[in-house]
Design goal:
Kinase-like_dom_sf, 3-stranded antiparallel beta sheet, Aminoglycoside 3'-phosphotransferase, Chain: A, domain 2, globular
Length: about 375
């Protein structure tokens, strides 16, 4: 999308000042994102990727509901809603997004200044602050009616469905790779009962249905440049109904690993228990009594489950011919799967420690 296209698009939104420029912005790989400069302010313009999100209006439905709710909560708490959550800029006809004649959906956010995002866990303190931000996000939304949200990516964290897809890929063995990954296949089969635990807990009302972010990576938290504190949770495209356990577990999978997601030297792969403790501490400090005892009990398991789910997806894609995840070398998806499974095994060996850590901070956060 060229700069003059951006200028034409900007004319549809209620912006302060005169358009100056548009520059590609950020390191995201899903949406087209531009920093818009005007004579008075800065904005973020995005085109929602309709290959990933087949119904972008449902994505916007969720974002509008959640950000409006957060704005009201932040104001009630005497905070700054224009820095502490995303703010959609309306179009000139009063809508929250603009659809071109070609069907592309664009949205505009206020730019949050004097804030930054970290791409990697440079030190435990940053991971702790990201945990506080996601815990605060969850706490603020504890009384939001999650059933009002659309499931923009069907069965995204339905681990039972992921397991069934895996078994089908094994049975079909469409390109003959099954023989070389028998150990990895058995690793997943041995943990079949894990797949249904959280899904069933939601269905049986053992744990509540909640608003979940579903992409709780470190770089989706903006850190205030002045205070150094977590300021705002961003990238709300995958906000859906689900369990907070999905968010917590995926954060640990991604952030507490000692190695890259596709590390080939498995001797360097394990879960850093210190980082697990930092994240648990920050998350539970912000949640307080907003988390149930059953959810707290399942937090260590959720880290294992989200890691197992991710590894299973990589292995499924490898068996099916590498069609879903981009690969950059032969057996790339297999390397990814093996890394995740090594993490799972390490988490299993540390489950007792993880449970003690959760219990410690759950009790202190609830005044026990």
């Amino acid at each position: 999308m060229k700069a003059y296209d951006c200028q034409e698009l900007c004319e549809n939104f209620k912006l302060d000042g005169r358009y100056i420029s548009a520059l590609p912005y950020g390191e995201g790989h899903i949406n087209d994102t531009y920093l818009i400069n005007t004579t008075s302010s800065r904005y973020i313009l995005q085109r929602v990727n309709q290959t990933v999100f087949a119904h972008p209006e449902e994505v916007m439905h969720n974002i509008i509901l959640v950000t409006d709710f957060l704005h009201e909560k932040i104001i009630a708490n005497c905070g700054d809603p224009y820095r502490e959550t995303l703010t959609l800029v309306p179009t000139k006809d009063g809508k929250r997004y603009y659809v071109t004649k070609y069907g592309d959906l664009f949205r505009m956010y206020l730019f949050i200044s004097h804030a930054l995002c970290y791409q990697t866990v440079e030190n435990p303190e940053i991971f702790y602050k990201s945990a506080k931000a996601f815990g605060h996000f969850q706490n603020m939304l504890k009384d939001f009616p999650a059933e009002q949200l659309k499931e923009t990516i069907p069965a995204f964290h339905n681990t039972v469905s992921r397991y069934q897809n895996f078994k089908k890929a094994v049975a079909v063995d469409c390109i003959g790779r099954k023989k070389e990954v028998e150990d990895e296949i058995q690793f997943v089969l041995d943990r079949e009962k894990d797949a249904s635990m959280i899904v069933n807990a939601i269905a049986n009302h053992e744990i509540p249905l909640r608003v979940t972010h579903n992409d709780t990576k470190l770089n989706n938290v903006m850190i205030d440049e002045i205070t150094g504190e977590g300021l705002c949770v961003i990238d709300l495209d995958t906000v859906m109904p689900g369990s907070m356990l999905f968010d917590f577990g995926d954060s640990i999978r991604f952030g507490a690993s000692t190695a890259a997601e596709d590390e080939q030297d498995l001797s360097t792969v394990w879960m850093d228990i210190g980082l697990f403790e930092q994240y648990t501490k920050g998350y539970l400090e912000e949640l307080g009594n907003a988390i149930t005892a059953k959810e707290a009990e399942l937090l260590p398991f959720s880290a294992k489950l989200m890691t197992l789910e991710c590894g299973t997806r990589f292995l499924t894609d490898y068996l099916e011919g590498d069609h879903y995840f981009k690969v950059h070398r032969p057996r790339h998806n297999l390397d990814r799967a093996r890394t995740q499974f090594k993490l799972v095994a390490d988490m299993e060996s540390k489950l007792g420690q993880m449970q003690e850590i959760v219990q410690k901070y759950f009790c202190s956060s609830n005044g026990f």
